[in-house]
Design goal:
Elements lengths: L1 E6 L5 H12 L3 E6 L13 E4 L13 H13 L3 E3 L2 H8 L1 H10 L7 E4 L2 H11 L3 E5 L9 E3 L20 E5 L7 E8 L2 E9 L14 E4 L4 H13 L4 E9 L2 E8 L7 H6 L3 H13 L10
Parallel strand pairs: 1-2, 1-3, 3-4
Antiparallel strand pairs: 5-8, 6-7, 6-8, 9-10, 9-12, 10-11, 12-13
């Protein structure tokens, strides 16, 4: 088995840990910077892991569409790709991800792509408050805003943001009936592990923004069915999903097909999440032949 890991500019802790644990298991692995993709023969690999984060998709020297085309070529060549080109599109475009889930009957907030304050105000007039505004492409809690009424939306909102994203989304707030949300990690049709996160200011679940994390030993049936169905809808093999429990059922706030970790997670979880990920991938794919169905 030979594995390639795609990254952008500099491998982060997750990619370094992937390399460490694959090699520890005797698996050959190469870290491939996306600028070297054109010179890479992907047919030499059994498995390619896409580890280019949505938070870098709007960097000036990152050509997103060219990258997607390269992912499609990898798929056509028969090498197993995690995640698919379509899953990557959903990773980088929350609006498409939301519509894809909604078409599959998965509960998630009503979402609309916006590029100016007037569009946000029109959405509020149609759907009422509170609403959430955040970058359409991005992550890690950057530039996520909640507005409780139309008067709170500043006219210069887009001048105050730090995101590289040209487009934002506005969405209805999925009101949790619990004081926490869920982050569930999925491989294929199985739950790898899950945790709850306390809600900052009663609505935001984000470790980087101050949420306290607790490992969930057993995921209930309805939550499991929801995250597996959502993962399948965006043609993702590996996914981490943000979910809240509402009066209508579990609502998927976001898909994160490129989950990122750091060394702090070892202390939080009591285990290394990347090691669990590697063990699962080896168990699932070491015996597969190129071109076999895996989603």
């Amino acid at each position: 088995m030979k594995v390639g890991v795609l990254y952008y500019k500099n491998p982060q802790w997750t990619e370094e840990q992937l390399a460490y644990f694959f090699r520890k298991k005797g698996v050959s692995i190469d870290l491939i910077e996306c600028g070297d993709m054109a010179a890479t023969n992907f047919k030499n690999y059994n498995l390619i892991l896409n580890r280019i984060y949505a938070s870098v998709a709007n960097e000036n020297n990152f050509d997103f569409m060219d990258y997607i085309e390269t992912l499609k070529k990898i798929e056509k060549g028969g090498t197993i790709l995690i995640n698919s080109s379509f899953a990557s599109i959903c990773d980088y475009d929350k609006d498409i991800s939301s519509k894809t889930m909604r078409d599959s009957g998965i509960l998630n907030p009503i979402t609309k792509k916006v590029s100016n304050v007037e569009e946000i105000k029109n959405f509020i007039e149609s759907h009422n408050c509170p609403v959430i505004v955040k970058p359409n492409t991005g992550g890690r809690g950057i530039d996520i805003m909640k507005f409780s009424n139309i008067e709170e939306v500043p006219e210069d909102l887009f001048k105050k943001t730090h995101s590289h994203s040209d487009n934002f989304i506005v969405q209805t707030l999925a009101k949790s009936i619990e004081p926490w949300d869920y982050r569930v990690f999925v491989i294929g049709k199985e739950i790898l592990f899950a945790n709850s996160r306390t809600l900052v200011d009663g609505w935001l679940g984000s470790r980087s923004q101050g949420s306290k994390i607790k490992v969930i030993e057993e995921v209930d049936k309805e939550l499991k069915e929801t995250v597996i169905k959502a993962t399948k809808s965006i043609k993702s093999e590996m996914n981490s999903l943000d979910v809240v429990k509402t009066n209508e059922g579990y609502s998927v706030i976001e898909n994160n097909p490129t989950p990122n970790f750091n060394v702090e997670y070892e202390n939080i979880f009591g285990f290394n999440p990347v090691k669990k990920l590697v063990d699962s991938l080896i168990d699932k794919f070491s015996g597969k032949k190129d071109g076999e169905e895996h989603i």
